[in-house]
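About this split. The held-out portion is used to measure sequence recovery: a designer receives only the structure tokens and must propose an amino acid at every position. Recovery is the fraction of positions where the proposal matches the reference. Here is one held-out target exactly as it appears in the evaluation file.
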């Protein structure tokens, strides 16, 4: 009876209704996210027993073919009461604008679908050194690379410079080229994108960029399956560039195409970035890459040394990592300086050589991340006075920040528990308790985890 009812309903509808009925059936049976990402973006044409479905990108067509084709054919046959041929195709580029409601399609003028910019093939997920500070960012990036547009769209990765954000973008591109070779994936820095906008707006006869006019540029970017934009903070104060980025963003999102962005700052903290763009960047998943903890810094040094054929003993790597606490680039730079000095002087790399080579860097790092600086940063963040952190009071509003300050001192300074305890007028067991408690709370309490991320980011900018 259900088949008959559906067939009768279809005969009373206009052309194209078979797919509409099928969509409603799929909406009832599929997971909401699967329906949204795979079925909703499809456009249908029906004629003479054939239903032609156009997908906005290869990923949607792959999912449809592998997971839903049989089910869709069965439903359509039930609705029509006879066999149906299902024809899956990629939406022609010139049709993309028509589907989105534009009366005048925009053509890119590029016959060969090659990306404008290349990525480093050596920057992969395997070569990315994972630690507690960047683990979640890597997980989200891998999920995007495996199943673009399925979740985390857009994905925003933010954090201080030199912490591996660009590495993750390149890793996404490299994995997509391997797993989803038919997708058109474009990586671009915000600075280069801004220059492309400027070049496309120059009057005829002047120096130009890759595109002869702004419409060709927009047509190119709106036809992309996966767009990755590095360093969006460079869009600040660039009104026309932000306007075009906003338009491209909306087009790609409406076509269910994956976007990934990185920034050195949380978007709401970027002065000169339009609120509507901030809202778009934060409309999906945002994840912070934090300062690497000691274990990760040691692993980075040992891995980089191995890659470059440098003999670096574990105790020397620990000695360096305890004193250089900022980012991956600074660690790599320090290793290079030490190696060059050892090579020039014909000496082995030991703590003595490291100390001689990096004396100034160690001194500056020690000043920047002193216990007093950490106490001041925590007091300012929680809107209390530094003197209250050191007082005997056990008020709840003070105890939490005090434990946070002690924990950060154990994370980003080379001071012993005894030295930290003295700086807070307490013994080392109190510091140990604070360290253990905050380590656990960072994993279980989102609010404390966010506070810790914010403070680490501030300390990295001191």
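Reference sequence for scoring:
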């Amino acid at each position: 009876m259900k088949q008959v009812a559906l067939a009768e309903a279809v005969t009373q509808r206009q052309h194209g209704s078979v797919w509409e009925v099928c969509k409603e059936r799929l909406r009832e049976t599929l997971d909401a996210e699967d329906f949204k990402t795979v079925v909703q973006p499809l456009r249908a044409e029906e004629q003479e027993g054939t239903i032609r479905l156009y997908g906005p990108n290869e990923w949607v067509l792959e999912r449809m073919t592998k997971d839903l084709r049989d089910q869709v054919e069965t439903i359509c046959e039930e609705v029509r009461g006879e066999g149906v041929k299902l024809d899956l195709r990629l939406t022609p580029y010139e049709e993309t604008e028509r589907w989105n409601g534009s009366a005048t399609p925009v053509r890119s003028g590029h016959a060969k679908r090659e990306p404008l910019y290349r990525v480093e093939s050596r920057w992969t997920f395997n070569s990315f050194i994972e630690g507690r500070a960047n683990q979640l960012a890597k997980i989200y990036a891998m999920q995007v690379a495996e199943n673009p547009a399925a979740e985390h769209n857009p994905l925003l990765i933010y954090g201080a410079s030199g912490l591996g954000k660009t590495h993750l973008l390149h890793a996404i591109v490299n994995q997509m080229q391997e797993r989803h070779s038919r997708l058109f994936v474009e990586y671009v820095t915000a600075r280069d994108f801004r220059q492309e906008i400027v070049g496309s707006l120059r009057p005829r006869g002047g120096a130009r960029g890759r595109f002869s006019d702004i419409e060709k540029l927009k047509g190119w970017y709106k036809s992309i399956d996966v767009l990755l934009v590095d360093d969006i903070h460079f869009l600040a104060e660039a009104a026309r560039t932000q306007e075009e980025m906003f338009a491209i963003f909306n087009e790609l999102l409406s076509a269910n195409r994956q976007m990934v962005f990185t920034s050195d700052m949380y978007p709401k903290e970027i002065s000169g970035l339009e609120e509507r763009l901030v809202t778009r960047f934060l409309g999906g998943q945002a994840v912070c890459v934090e300062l690497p903890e000691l274990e990760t810094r040691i692993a980075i040094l040992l891995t980089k040394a191995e890659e470059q054929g440098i003999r670096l003993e574990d105790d020397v790597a620990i000695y360096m990592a305890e004193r250089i606490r900022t980012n991956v680039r600074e660690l790599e730079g320090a290793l290079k300086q030490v190696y060059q000095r050892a090579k020039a002087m014909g000496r082995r790399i030991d703590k003595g050589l490291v100390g001689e080579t990096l004396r100034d860097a160690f001194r500056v790092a020690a000043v920047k991340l002193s216990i007093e600086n950490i106490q001041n940063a925590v007091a300012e963040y929680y809107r209390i006075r530094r003197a209250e952190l050191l007082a005997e009071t056990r008020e709840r509003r003070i105890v939490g920040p005090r434990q946070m300050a002690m924990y950060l001192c154990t994370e980003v300074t080379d001071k012993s528990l005894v030295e930290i305890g003295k700086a807070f007028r307490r013994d080392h067991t109190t510091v140990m308790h604070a360290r253990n408690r905050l380590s656990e709370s960072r994993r279980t309490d989102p609010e404390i985890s966010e506070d810790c991320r914010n403070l680490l980011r501030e300390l990295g900018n001191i």
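Annotator remark: Strands lie at 43-47, 50-55, 85-90, 155-158, 185-189, 226-230, 258-263, 285-288.
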